[in-house]
């Protein structure tokens, strides 16, 4: 349902069923495992939805993936192993936080690049804009001292 | 007949927009005052015609004229009138008409209220506004005609998308568009300055109110959309870093930067060229947002092909205006004289810092939004960039802005005293730190980030007024005198303080999400569930019919310590025509927090899935946004900024002058 946010995409009229997300029968008895499952789910994309994590999607596929995540966790997988397993099945597309690879390097570097470029540009502009004022000559210095009552 | 006259009015509006695009510029070039003055009646006439066309469409929706395709597809007879009217902009064609209407509103407003402006600036500004209007009117008439007829007319329509049958969402698009499209006039001002080659503090003074108006509405529009998502989506999420949300956040970030750099320009004639660039950037991002949302490129790279004419047309407009304005900028900007030197530690310096980081934030959101599209079209590889990415990158850039915000307010123009400014913030920083440490120490188990966030929020709220206090409170002054001094402070100083405090209030709500409690349970009628400090009981499940839907509702009682504090009625609505079901959450506001109840699927054994949330301080998120917008409107009421009064000298102050600190 997320894609109708802000009433701007109204034209497309795509509507999945009821917003569902985690259902009571999925919740694990083990509190620690359930917390880990929720944290993991919020970083995994529901592949058939638009930009929704499996943690907040009502799609059937999202439910299947949530159950899969919990199954793996119960089998003793670490978070990283669960993630790797899902990536091996569905590719990087399933990760809402893309891994750092040559293709995504620019994405991750962009904030630093923009900030760095802006700072350098700013320093250059300041240097150009503010030529240091010409130093006072002897006469001016004497006049200034007189005015300031230092002479 | 009304429909045809509406369509005709739109064609006439295009003709008038074309006149408005050409004659005023020609007039100012040749020094022909009469020709330049054409801009004013043209802008007003264009507004009248577009308004008429819009009214015609509203009429067609209100009377359910099913000979119109847009009415058939977005309305039905049993729908409440308010949603019939909201259905006007609940679809592509109508919302584009609303877009153009708001464009015309701003054009006419500058024509009518811009009397204090230099004549050539007004003429050129309106001409540029005419270009934008021509492009979008052409887009509507050629690809998205809202007045397209259908024969034979069906007896009943397809109903409005159920998600949109909501009061919040009915007023959300107009608000958002007032902000989004409002920046068009700022863009036009910038292009006009480049065309005439003259850019001074007076320009900044004329343009500042318009930036403020657009910014206030954009803030309100985003907050409204966020609250709508919160109560509609059924689990209380309020921001998802969805591309469509990002499309509105980017102009907001750039617009916020613009608001601040224009202040520097007005006060000190510095940052002129940068301000011009931001003005162009902000509206370019609005256009980009329109393109992303309207072309369907977001849904999938391929759905672009569903209606390639629309996507390509808007892309053309995008390239023309962004490319054209940047080319104009590259050509003319170097000729503009830079002015106003300042030390790095000064009010200007702080605002440059603000601009650096806000622009970086904006670039981060832009890259994150477009990167998957670009990568897929270049290499065919699909990646996802979602909330975890944005939280990780956006947060660290935004925190320094927050930390520096009160500090910047306390610095003097030109050359500031960092130690002095920091001293003025001792109270704010002390309070914030005490709160953070106190919370972390006393509330075991709560996330540390929440304690830090709440401390930072308190620092922001108190710090926002740190600069005003010494200008009001003085030794030996009576309460009356202090009140007089408080009222005598410029409204813009109050506006700044209020808006900055609003940011703190929003942060308060964001930070407190860490304290939220969630229960997802299958429940029978009559059962109770503990939820944070509350006990929630579902009394009953009942079915009942509505106007164009049927619903399953459950009265739910919320008790605290055995005492009934609220009753809510969450429901699940089924819309037969669209074959869609949506959840209506039951929300009880208790203090600043909310208890949120949402119904899920029913089971054969008589239980129903229910989601229950206790969200402490959550309303602060949107109250903060309202306060920000309020700050903007207070600033707008400053005599200095009032539209049309730019040339008149300020009235001498009647009260005892307050110490001239940084303003």
- Pair of chains with the largest interface and how many residues each contributes: A-B, 55 and 74 residues
Secondary-structure-derived class of chain A = mainly alpha
Order of helices and strands of chain A: HHHHH
Q: Termini distance of chain B?
A: 57 Å
List low-pLDDT spans of chain A.
1-19
Oligomer: heterodimer
Number of helices of chain A: 5
Verbal overview:
The complex is a heterodimer of chains A (151) and B (663). Chain A has 151 residues and is mainly alpha-helical. Chain A folds into 2 domains: 2-94, Helicase, Ruva Protein, domain 3; 102-147. Chain A is built from 5 helices and no strands. Among the domains of chain B are: 1-165, Four Helix Bundle (Hemerythrin (Met), subunit A), CATH 1.20.120; 517-615. Helix content of chain B is 61%, strand content 10%. The radius of gyration of chain B is 27 Å and the shape is globular. Chain B has 663 residues and is α+β, with helices and mostly antiparallel strands. The relative contact order of chain B is 0.08. Classes of the chains: A mainly alpha (151), B alpha+beta (663). Chains A and B meet through helix 4 of A and helix 8, helix 10, helix 11, helix 12 and helix 14 of B.
